[in-house]
Each structure stands twice: as structure tokens, then as C-alpha cells.
Design a protein that fits this description.
This protein has 330 residues and is an alpha/beta fold. It is built from 12 helices and 12 strands. A hairpin with a 2-residue loop joins strand 4 and strand 5. Helix 4 packs across helix 5. It is globular.
């Protein structure tokens, strides 16, 4: 087995909130707590969970954009603890594709300038002709016409703007790309095009991807492994097919059951059991299991004791009753 391209150990992302009132003390809370995973060359890790579960905070923590503790090792380089200049250099190997494609682009810059900007920082020795050649090549790869290079972002659709963002992320030939909700702002038909584009680029360039999304069917299509997050913690982590066909955590099962079905007849026949209640505040998480306030399988132990993430039949699960679910699903 090849060495992981990215190895994350016990990553914790902490935010500081101002105190209430003039003399109020500042508060801190963990948006992400003790998350660990590995990502190999050419693999995709899907990260799913409701809004507010810490998915985007995890992405920012990997990039060093927020205060973190733990370890983030990209190949042989430890990113946590780097000084600002070294971290800025390391981020060139971790480009980000954003959720809102239009808002992520500078409206005053042409497509060519937008895509070429990372090259000016990463490879300042390139000539103007060499930059133009690289920009034209990557535009072709993502399905953008060469004639578009002198247009501005407002002249494009959301899907085209996301193609521009992907081209910008790939222009420096990184090995790993973080996609933070890259299709959530797009129409359903365009989502499939962008996902298929990412899959094709991954196969061509041997890219590794971290793909954050709400859409579970899309995550299943693109991912090799999937991590389910709730209140900043990992609830389940497994191979994609294993997780979708045999979810061992009640939260994972609830997310899968709530996913829309493409067949209207199947959707009408399905009897979903929606989650009860709202996501608790990360400032005041439940004692014991984070999911205990909404779990249909909750018992007294769940309120008193936080379950550890442990290996069960090929999956990593943080649930006291995972063995019972395994027996039911077997």
C-alpha cells in the first residue's frame, strides 16, 4: 500500500467568540474535534453532514486559515505549526474550489488573469507566453472555449464560473484539491456535469480530492471513502459502498434515508423517518454522544458517555449500539 498523500491526526479547530457585554469574557468552542483520516494518491474522500457540522471548518483547518491543534501532514511536510510565509507557500499545493462560483471570482479580472494568478505566485519565472499557453491548455481541459479568456465572470453561467474556479485550482498542477460544496449552488443538471468533470480530471491527472457536500448520491458517485460528521466529530468513516449499503451509525442511516430518490415512484413508496429536532448548538453540545438528543436508538448510556470511534466490521463508528445495528443489517 502506498504512503498517504495527506495524513490528518486529531485535528481540532477552535473559534474565539467575543464576550457578551462590555466586560464579558471571550468564549471558545471547538468547531472540529479530534478528526483523523488518511487520503491516498488518486483517492477521493467525501465529507457529509448537515449544515453546521464542521465540514467547512475542517477544510479551513487543513489550509491553516483558522486556529488548529493536531497534525496535518502533506506528504513529508507537517503543516501545523508553520510560520505564515511557509504556510502560504504550502497552500499552493492545497487549492480550494469554492461553494459559490461567481462570488469566488474577482469581477474586475478577466478569465485568463483569474486562472493565471496562482502561476504568478507559484512560478514567477514563467514568461507571459508560457503563462498564456498554460492557461489555454487548462481552459481546454475544463471545457472552456479559448475565446472566453478575455471575458469577465458576470458574462458566464454558474456552471461556467465553477469551471473557471476548477481551472484556477489546477493551473499549478497540484496533487490534492479541496472541494467545499462545489455543486450546491448549481442546477441539478449542471451538478452532474461538474462532478463528471472532476472525475475525469482526477483520472487524467491522478488527483486526490476532498469533496464536501450535502448531496449524498453525488458523494457516493465520486468518493472512494466517506466520513460522516456531526457537531464537529466523526460519526462514521468507511469505504463508500460499505457505508451506503450498511450504515452502522443511526445518523448515517438517517442521512441516507432522507436523500431524494430520482425515481418518483420509489420516492412515493419510501417511508422516511426524518430526524427529530434541530442540530444542537456547538456552544452547548449534549453530554455524552453528540447525537443523543436526536437519536432513535438512544439509551441512558448515550447521555452519560461519549462513544469512541472504533473499528467494527471494516467501518469506524462512534456509536454504543453499532453492533446491534450490524446484527440487524447482516
Amino acid at each position: 500500500m502506498s504512503a498517504p498523500l495527506l495524513a490528518v491526526r486529531d485535528l481540532t479547530v477552535t473559534y474565539r467568540l467575543p464576550g457578551r457585554g462590555l466586560l464579558g469574557r471571550a468564549r471558545r468552542f471547538n468547531a472540529v474535534t479530534d478528526v483523523s483520516f488518511e487520503l491516498g494518491p488518486g483517492e477521493t474522500l467525501g465529507i457529509v453532514g448537515e449544515s453546521g457540522c464542521g465540514k467547512s471548518s475542517l477544510a479551513r483547518g487543513l489550509l491553516g486559515l483558522v486556529p488548529v491543534a493536531g497534525s496535518v501532514r502533506l506528504e513529508s511536510q507537517e503543516l501545523c505549526g508553520l510560520d505564515r510565509r511557509s504556510l502560504r507557500t504550502a497552500r499552493r499545493s492545497l487549492p480550494l474550489v469554492y461553494q459559490d462560483p461567481l462570488a469566488a471570482l474577482d469581477p474586475r479580472m478577466t478569465v485568463a488573469d483569474t486562472i493565471a494568478e496562482p502561476l504568478r505566485l507559484a512560478e514567477p519565472g514563467l514568461t507571459s507566453a508560457e503563462r498564456r499557453e498554460r492557461v489555454s491548455a487548462i481552459m481546454e481541459k475544463v471545457g472552456l472555449e479559448p475565446a472566453y479568456r478575455y471575458r469577465y465572470p458576470h458574462e458566464f453561467s454558474g456552471g461556467q464560473c465553477q469551471r473557471i474556479g476548477i481551472a484556477r485550482a489546477l493551473i499549478t498542477a497540484p496533487r490534492l484539491v479541496i472541494c467545499d460544496e462545489p455543486v450546491s449552488a448549481l442546477d441539478v443538471s449542471i451538478r452532474a456535469q461538474i462532478v463528471n468533470l472532476l472525475v475525469g480530471l482526477q483520472e487524467e491527472f491522478g488527483l486526490s480530492l476532498i469533496f464536501i457536500a450535502h448531496d449524498l448520491p453525488i458523494v457516493r458517485h465520486i468518493s472512494h471513502r466517506v466520513m460522516v460528521m456531526y457537531l464537529g466529530r466523526t460519526m462514521e468513516y468507511a469505504d463508500a459502498e460499505l457505508l451506503y449499503t450498511r450504515p452502522l451509525h443511526p445518523y448515517t442511516a438517517a442521512l441516507i434515508e432522507a436523500a431524494p430518490l430520482p425515481d418518483p415512484r420509489a420516492a412515493r413508496a419510501a417511508r422516511h423517518k426524518p430526524l427529530v429536532g434541530d442540530l444542537p448548538s456547538p456552544l452547548q453540545p449534549p453530554a455524552g454522544c453528540p447525537f443523543s438528543s436526536r437519536c432513535p436508538m438512544v439509551q441512558d448510556r448515550c447521555h452519560a458517555e461519549r462513544p469512541a470511534l472504533r473499528e467494527i466490521a471494516g467501518s469506524q463508528v462512534a456509536c454504543h449500539r453499532a453492533e446491534e445495528r450490524l446484527a440487524l443489517l447482516s
